[in-house]
Amino acid sequence: MGESSYGHGSDDAKSEIDSLLAGVGYSIRPSDLRQVAERLEKLDSAMIAAAAAGLPPEFLCSDAVHYNPSDLAAWIESMAMLTDFSPDHFRPTNPAPASWTGDICPPAPGPPHPVANPKPPEDAGISLVHLLMSCADSIHRGDRPSASTLIHEMQLLLPRVGTAFGIGKVAGYFIDALDRRLRSRPLPQEDDILYHYYYESSPYLKFAHFTANQAILEAFNGCDRVHVIDLSLMHGLQWPALIQALALRPGGPPLFRLTGIGPPEGREALCEVGRRLSELARSVGVPFTFRGVVAAHLDEVRLSLLRVESCETLAVNSVLQFHRLLADPGSPGPINSLLSWLRRLRPRIVTVVEQEADHNRPVFLDRFTEALFYYSTVFDSLETAGGGRPAEVYLHREICNIVCCEGEERLERHEPLASWRTRFSQAGLWPVHLGSDAFRQASMLLTLFSGEGYGVEEVDGCLALGWHGRAIISASAWHAGDDMDAPPSTGSILFNGFRESVAGESSGSNREIELGSQTEHSL
Amino acid sequence: MAGSNEVNVSESKTVVPLNTWVLISNFKVTYNLLRRPDGSFDRHLAEFFDRKVPANASPVNGVVSFDIVLDRLSHLLARVYRPAPDLADGELPQKALLSELQKPPSPNPFPVIIFFHGGSFAHSSSNSSIYDSLCRRFVTLCGGAVVISINYRRSPEFRYPCAYDDGWTALKWASSEPWLRSGKDAKLRVFLAGDSSGGNIAHHVAVRAVESGTHISGNILVNPLFGGNRRTESELKLDGKYFVVLKERDWYWKAFLPEGADRDHPACNPFGPNGVKLDGLPFPRSLLVVASLDPTQEWQLAYADGLKNAGHEVRLIYREKATIGFYLLPNTNHHHEVMEEIKDFVKSNLIVSTNAAD
Prior knowledge:
By secondary structure, chain A is of the alpha/beta class. Chain A has helices at 19-22, 30-52, 72-83, 122-141, 144-161, 166-182, 192-201, 203-219, 239-247, 267-284, 303-306, 335-345, 364-384, 389-404, 417-426, 436-446; strands spanning 225-230, 255-262, 288-295, 313-319, 349-355, 430-432, 454-459, 462-467, 470-479, 502-503, 510-516.
């Protein structure tokens, strides 16, 4: 077939992957090129044959789920298995609805007006950015008087820039954060209501919950006894959707246990959330048990309290929690012991959502700059989605933690997905790729939001939600890599009526609360 | 090779390097999964497949990029590429601030290239990896150009004339940015460039520009997308042989043109029966690159003729044995020689004599 006339513009077979294709987003070894080419040709022929037989080519596999398009060899292999490349092998299906997801980018310092108005004072915006950077630099160098003067200047300049949108909006919060750091003022208070506003007014948390639930649902496929450990239950906003999805599962719902972890001061809230989730589960017919576990720090949670059973399929869910266990780069931090106990639990899946940001840089100025750009983008996105002030005020806490706190007090140590990938693989966790169905559903979720600037991207099996091209939050899934097939044991399981008990602990750091659903279920 | 199952013996494998073949074929098959016979498009899956790359304000090979909103109301975005800002001695390269990046890259005249990516009006974005790579190359190739890649609205969700409107918005934006002007006369030295549908957009934006008195230094069209109702000989001869299938071309035109229009609509066939006369307008000089294995080449050649007949200069580069997409990877003479042509074209049209004698 004219093999000798294939040109080789790539590196020779000794190198890892073809560097030219890598430069455009594809990962393939030179030694695989030939086979991939043959398969592509076969797939193309099959599509043409399908068309000739009267079926449009895309019906060949329109309900297929695709994974990791960068890995060409793996993708074409999955297509080979799916289609058999035989002209007789067609499966017509319903076409999915199409919808536009826009692309994205961070805001310019001075927003241009579309109407023929004189341009807003862009210079003031740019000056403000300069002042912010200078002030951060002064603080970084320990020059408090300069920093103080600069803060004053910025406060004077701020009204000229306008705090309605763009750089002015986010600058105000950063000026306040710098001021708090300089004058050791206390940080803003936590507020449940603000969390709710943030949840409602932007797609970030919803995307997080939604994507994690998708992955958990898939991991629970065919399992009769399932257990989710939520590393931070908060208001339990993620779980109603999963409960309902399990209720509607073909073949009926499994036995669903949820263990929610929360801080000691939130014990009653934890009970209340568990109570409400139990009510919901009962109303939709899902056999459900809730257990609450309080712990001041995640790495202190004792495995025995989680009561993981070998006959159940386990999912561990972490939404914006892991970064709180990091320390300064180079120092070990509690994250390692957490990952180690996670691994010992042998979960079928670990769902991880984290901010896609580099806010754990040791040098204050770097951290400040990163945060300024990151939150500019986030605030820009909130404004378009009609988020408004409460959501911003919620995020202000994060900003202050990044700007003002050091050492153990600094909890918002966001690191990019690439860093997490390395950390997880060192801890023995391997990626579970999120596929095109999760992508599609996340994309469709976004169309519910008014801001067209949101977009979902797939990178190496993980999904990232961003605004104007800048990724803001990422969702990924992992597994421990061994022992995935423990069969569920059968036996009769009785659920008592509603009961609440507190198992005391002399050290005082861990308590458990158990709530059962009132459904009786036996196998 | 294992026993043949080929319905269509593709000759394309003998004329392109293997990795290029894999790249373009992969586009072809994945795109097959996206177009539906009813004219709708699986946008979610399209975005899932598209390999994207973020902007990078830290220099990579001397080029930095940043994303910018050109128009907040319509969310029109663009990615700007430019040479990395000069460093003071001893300074380490670092992520530059937006304010630093929106300064002229040079005290001397520099070209501003407004680039429209290809994708048959339906595919790709300004942050698609293939186009990010290409635009970065243009910056260095043209001696430190500013390249602005426009994320125009795509079909079938947005039909003609949305993409052209977005191009026009982009041009107006560039005209209003002081940092994009250069030379003693503080002029915007703008080139409109594009491949495939991007080339088509570049033409139509240029028309609008000259009709309203905006000066364009030059047009660079690489395998631009044009067509017509009539089936040309090349279309019939080369159909399906080198990655391009006529039926697919038809689908994309149908998705872009207004409902009920045919391919003699002036957007598709600018010098056809419904074309607009360009005689007497200060239409920019054009560099037109045509691949001999592109089935639609006769429309591109007709375009060149149309420009010449209207009294406008065209430098036509006809590449023998080139297929579509040769410019995506730097692994052929086609790529390297065409890049040189683009470089020369931009250089020679950067400074234009004030004499209107041409």
